[in-house]
């Protein structure tokens, strides 16, 4: 088999993990030996690195790699949006296949990127972009293709699961734990992307496009992060038999008169029963539960971030596209590439149905629970449980868990509850599954 020469853009957590795999003597498929690193682009040529590199391998100009005719594949593991998009598109236009771990770019410019790759008869593979080391993108494109996907729900950000697990198990401090996640290489360059839910929204957007076949308007996905979760919510959730996790959900709805498939997609901190399989997913691990017809239910589980697992996904992509190119010469494997096959739209937040958790701080006065219950009842919101969990001096904390109810009805109830004289503040609102 011919050698496959790759140019790697980025030599941080993921890039150095790729180098380690390709320079190790790991007992894996012989095709791994065909992959040769031709050049590596970094930002700072003078940076001190843990891995000793031949200086001739390094450049600070990514376009040198793209314009080098001897390089077959560009591996984009630099991050960011605008420059990364240019690197990917220019590489494809010059007939080079691309492997990327960059969810921010694929979630925003996937359509243009997939189309360019198809037009140029090359591939864009991105297994590492969603749930780091877990095979999830290629299974959706290939192994699960004979199914109708109904629903996907999961934990798809490693940093936030790491933080929430430590807050739950060790009552760890939020800020300190975020710093630890950064030092372990889990968090994005700007960790706001992780803790405010942007990263999970990018990932569920990519997964939804692959599973349901239509372009998703990323900016329409409703998302929230974990930065407002405090130890009290975690403690109360635990008392009531739940864990708090940052969940991403994408669910098939009806096809409308314009032949567009409705999708309910959101990301948010959520209560999940301790008996639910997702509640066992701890630390940097991710998991995605997929319900499909006729398959039934499967859960894909494993490390969602970190150098080795993420790099392993990147290297597997390189192997897959090298093998496909060698085998098919100039023809393109239609399942390894990706094209949309239908229209989809996101259901507006006021139309979706959800279970909710609400923590209300109010005066500890007689009848307040009754008043809150009445407001929910009047607005068609059915309550699963309502309890007073903490009372000190004249203050009480009331926790409400609803059944699955219309979001518009729920938001209306919240406004009315907020205006009760006894209510000081609605301290937190979370989803439940
Ligand atoms: N870390 C993880 O666990 C995971 C990361 N990803 C994704 O992988 C990508 C890379 O992440 P990660 O490895 O953590 O990031 P790092 O910040 O660790 O590394 C980024 C690398 O890109 C290089 N770089 C930055 N700007 C430029 C530039 N203008 N030209 C050339 N090189 C540049 C940096 O150079 P220098 O070294 O000189 O600073 C660095 O080597 C991101 O898209 C991320 O979302 C996906 C899944 C998991
Ligand atoms: N920052 C991301 C890395 C992988 O995509 C995460 O924490 O999941
Ligand atoms: Na993956």
TrEMBL record:
Binding residues annotated for NADPH, in chain numbering: 103
Recorded catalytic activity of this chain's protein: L-homoserine + NADP(+) = L-aspartate 4-semialdehyde + NADPH + H(+)
**Keyword terms, alphabetized:** Amino-acid biosynthesis, Methionine biosynthesis, NADP, Oxidoreductase, Sodium, Threonine biosynthesis
Superkingdom of origin: Bacteria
What the entry lists under InterPro entries is as follows: ACT-like_dom_sf (IPR045865), ACT_dom (IPR002912), Asp/hSer_DH_NAD-bd (IPR005106), HDH (IPR016204), HDH_cat (IPR001342), HDH_CS (IPR019811), NAD(P)-bd_dom_sf (IPR036291)
Tell me the residue numbers annotated for binding L-homoserine.
Answer: 188
What family is reported? Belongs to the homoserine dehydrogenase family.
The protein here is known as Homoserine dehydrogenase
Native organism is Prochlorococcus marinus (strain MIT 9301)
Write the lineage as a comma-separated list: Bacteria, Bacillati, Cyanobacteriota, Cyanophyceae, Synechococcales
